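Lab notebook page, bench 4
Experiment: in silico fold of construct C2
Operator: M.H.
Input chain length: 522 residues
Purpose: comparison with the prior construct
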Amino acid sequence: MSVSVHYRVFTDLYKDSVSLMQLGAALRARAGVEEASCIMATPANLAQLADAGLVVDATFAPSDLLVIVRGEPQACAAAIDDAADTLQSAAAQGDGGGAAFVLPLTSLAMGFEHAPDADLALISVPGDYAAAEARKALSLGLHVMLFSDNVGVEDERAIKEFARERGLLVMGPDCGTAIVNGVPLGFANVVRRGDIGLVAASGTGLQEVTCRIHQLGGGVSQALGTGGRDLKDDIGGITMLQGIEALADDARTRVIVLISKPPSPAIAQRILDAAAASGKPAVVDFLGAAPASISRPGIVAAHSLQHAADAAVALAQRRALPPAAAAPPVDRVAASIAAMTPTQRDVRGLFCGGTFCYETQFVFLERGLACGSNVPVRGASSYDGHDARNAGHLFIDLGDDDYTRGRPHPMIDPSQRNAAIRAHAADPAVAALLFDLVLGFGAHPDPATELATALREARAIASAQQRTVALIGHVCGTDGDPQDRSRQQETLAKAGAVIAASNFEAAALAAEVAIRRRGVAA
């Protein structure tokens, strides 16, 4: 069967990146379609298409929406026709039955005129234009959640300083999750309202902690994202400092939680001083930082995302602080370990959430287990994304830019991660496969079903080689999420996976497997 590339251009039609990623994922799931992408035709997006092997000989304007599909010709043509129906239906105004024409809102100013009580703009446009749109929103007196990525560091600092001068907040760029006054934004989860306020430079870290707070019976007052670079020296922690001040002034917030990768000593000192001066107890998780560098009066140093949530709920409920979480009982995977062959010593982690990949590396390094990653932490080796044989313990963030060029994030379309699970199961050195599943608004509507199929196939691949692979994972979400955490967990457990209560617990359990297999003669 021949394979070809088909495309269609929709002139001057804009859709946000999340909608386009979801549409691309739906096209890619169709029979006969090998690859598909739906993008705004900016130079940066077109370059990513080229990296993904989707190239057409045509010229586009940045305001054009491009749908491009590779596969069997008939399947591609049908896919593009359906995409056109979806896009044109979504773009239509009125009901087509004689309703009055409604002028589309084509600018922030028009949107604000339509909703003058609004106080926040969520911006998801190509990075080349994001800073300009953010400045427009700020000029209208709106706080900004900047979902867009590929925004320059100088632009980020400029718009954050512009916002600070006006008493406004910029969450982002590349801010995928927030909960503001009980309203979930981006990939946020359904959690109860309460008295714990959070500021995080990590989207999945924010999701993990807010979800566990909910599971422990606590609630969230506000959950503010900063974007991953906010605590870099170039930015200076502007948004996190503003977030701390806002939570300190918020009567509903009694406990503050801060989450980030370790900032520089100067920025860390500034953040910790602000937290200590807030007048409210604070829990700080600078992933991988020594607790002694964080602890001080009024501040609890968390040892993990799980511990951060546990400590925050204990403070809110005026209970004794919990100890750092211990390693889970290894008996949950004892049968798998007993059935392994001498070649099986390595753990492979395949993650949708970058923070989960980051935290897992620290779990292994703290136990003296060398590891590598495509997003290595201090002390881990760098993995270039190619041959994983003889790589040892390896943790891959499949949401990193190298894996998402021209493709949706694996939280929206998990097919690439599921394929990686099958591939790594075939490696005779692999003893355990570690994975996450991230739920929430905007994420895949039922990711466990496809993942369970991949896990069963992984077990079959190993079994054909007379091996047994331990399958260890955790589900970040709540039962109130559209996907229903309990249902997702049950689906994965039926596929033979051990489902832990948190990413830390899953990583610790995988580390116990590695320790038990260390020194086994091949």
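Observations: Residues 93-99 have pLDDT under 50 and may be disordered. DSSP finds 17 helices and 20 strands in the chain.
Next step: discuss at group meeting.
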